[in-house]
Please model this.
Amino acid sequence: MVGMKITFKHLFVPEVTIQYPEIKVPMAERVRNRLYVNMDDCIGCDQCARACPVNCIEIETVKSLPTEDLGKTSNGKKKALWVTKFNIDIAKCCYCQLCVFPCPTECIYMTDVYEFAEFEREDLLYKFATLTPAQAEEKKNNFDVFQAEKEAAKVAAAEKAAAEKAAAAKAAAEKAAEEKKDDSKTDEE
Amino acid sequence: MYDIILNITGSEILSMIISAALPLFLFILPFALVAVLAERKVSAFMQDRLGPTRVGPKGTLQTVADILKLFQKEDIIPSEADKKLFNLAPILVFAGSFAVFAAIPFSGAYIGTMADVGVFYIIAISSLVVAGILMAGWASNNKYSLLGAVRSVSQIISYEIPTALVILSLVMLAGTLNMYDLTNMQTEYFWNWFIFGGPATGIQKILLIPFMVVGFVIIYISTLAEVNRTPFDIPEAESELVAGYHTEYSGMKFAIFFLAEYANMFAVSAIVATLFFGGFQSPFGYIGNLLGAEWMIPIEQFLWFTVKGLFFVFVQMWLRWTLPRLRVDQLMALCWKYLIPYAFVNLIIIGIISLI
Amino acid sequence: MAIKTEEMVLNMGPQHPSTHGVLRLELKLSGELITGVTPHIGYLHRCFEKHCEAMTYPQVIPYTDRMDYLASMYNNFGYVTAVEKLMGIEVPERVEYIRIIMGELQRIASHMVAIGTNGLDIGAFTPFLYLFRDREKILSLFEMTCGARLLYNYMWIGGVSHDLHPDFLRLTKEFIDYFRPNITELNNLLSYNKIFVERTANVGVLPADVAINYGMTGPNLRASGINYDLRKDEPYSIYDRFDFNVPVGEGKMGTLGDCWDRYYMRVLEMEESLKIVEQAIAQIPDGDVHSAIPKRIKPPVGSIYHRVENPRGELGYFIVSDGSMNPFRVKVRPPSFVSLELMDELCKGHLVSDVVAILGSIDIVLGEVDR
Model:
């Protein structure tokens, strides 16, 4: 009977239901929902991919040429890597937040977006890289060419150095031979 | 009602059928629809949440949507099931629940059949449900359903005994089995209602009141068990037997079981209201009498009848959402060890008092 | 002449409204009396222990969350304190206090689910919803601190991931004041309800010596009359600074160690946890929560077994380290696994309806049983 009094009292307590699509619950500040990467700040250090327990982040980078200017990150450091691929498979992500902390520029963070359901599974692979595939190819080629040139230059420089060294050795040997002749000459007088 | 139709059609059989069957389609079916929605809303408000709100204004068309959904579902019959019994079972349950309404007086001007054995007929025909449930459980070829059906059958036939005993004591006091006469005896203000002793006077009435209250409690609990409502809803206990005897039914047949349950709920509430609380009589007298408009009285009586029936249905729902379930053997112990002895003692004492 | 009867085998299959997860119970019945119960588990096995060998130590923490998903903070707690003990790290005072507050709030939330589903199985639909409404408040406290509602990844090796939100202490105090009268309401509605008592008293009686022989711990053991709580007998973290009682079963409504006792232990423990949280809030010092987190987590070679008091019993972690960044072996001793073995003992001689009541009262979570 006591129970009946309690349920009867609750008939008049206002409901706690929130009518979802029209009214949404305000989210807390630190809430962990969909990931977002601010590519302007990303320096391609790969720390977030290494910290992820489910391996949902894939990063590929290309070294830039010394002549190219990639701009600065928001805390003043100069960027040195082109990020050609930055994929996050948000279907694999377990929302654990372990990738947010190692980032040195704080460019990867969790937003409060939670309504991102898609119809196709492939749409859940988020691609954040800002270079188009053509550009990425171009950068890669640039770097390969640069690398090849550097190799060639290195080889040439090595040869030159070897040649110079040989020439210097020859000159030194000739000089030594001349001095010896001078010595023997003075010895004779 | 019978006479009016008799004048129109001139055939006794036709008018009898129409006058008895009309309340089903005008009153009980819409009531069953409303009751489903009311249950969901009442349970929701008791649990601090809103019930259905999207379909129709404030969710009022929810049951219509449910019935439409059940209509268009595929009718699945398990391959090893006994097809004839499987199809027959819902019809029997339906018939058993709805046939009771023929003998209940809805208002002063209308009663389905003016049988002189009204009360006896009600007790007898509500046992048809037992056969239907057992058929449903057996024909489903499912161990769970059989368990549920067997439990339900034992529950219903056990609890019919206290019901019959209390009704017997009342009938002894009143001297008639006719429901219409029973209601008319409780006329003129609420202290003539049977729960307050009935139309007896003086010391007899005062002595009767506590025993009538005890009788009312016994019959209310017994009828709760007859309709398989919590705390006696073992046959359809969701967490144990996954819906018991109607597990294997889908589509329209399930809808029939569903509606039959709610109609049965109203039937027993109406019986309790008629026997103890004055049926269609108003507690204070009729506005029609005050205003001198005689035609208003049957309508008022109908309104009072509905209000009382709905109140008892609400109390049934209230109990469902408050109390946990009883176990099968505790249920049986309650019936045979407590309710039946009390009902017997009640019967004897009322009999003695009525001799005074 | 004896009648030849056969035993019926009834299958409460993996999909059932009232087994707490995917569990298959094979019941052998003779009529309605049970003669044997065989639980079949493994439907939720996710190879947690093997997986840990491929992860670094901090990366294991989100995986420990997902074992007992109703008490994630405690799983984190156990793992993190085990690794810290192995590495010999001392955490700041503030971190200890925060961990205890979170752990006890998590205990209250977990018991709410246990009590609610226990009532739901018996047929009382309403207390379940009232408790869930209150549980939402705890979950929003957690969301305010670390951002997630169920699987937190909050406790790190050497500290916690975020410091407390500035409003957290005030809101927790409000929650405590709000929840205390609700426990009284719950008692009136469910615990002392005559039908509930009849359903659960004298059902599934667990004698104390049987419990100890099987290795039961937690509220199930305490309900049989044995006063054994890891927080008091082998205090870890700073539990020895708090003043709280350990509820022990007394057989108030029937035999000692029946389902009602196990259920009531949880209600009393919620009250005790509220006391601990109150004291911790009053005593919490300031400090930096990230100061003791090492840059590289490379424990020395060795092994350690550390246990904590989960809401369900004793949760143990056995970690073997070979000096590298990945653990060599992580073994978990889940309390629900041990509790589930007792189903056969407890259910003999009862009816089918009692199986459900007993299963609800020993409070298992299949994520923990199967890992």
About this structure: Chain B touches chain A through 14 residues (CB under 8 Å). The first helix of chain B runs from residue 2 to 9. Residues 2-354 of chain B form one domain.
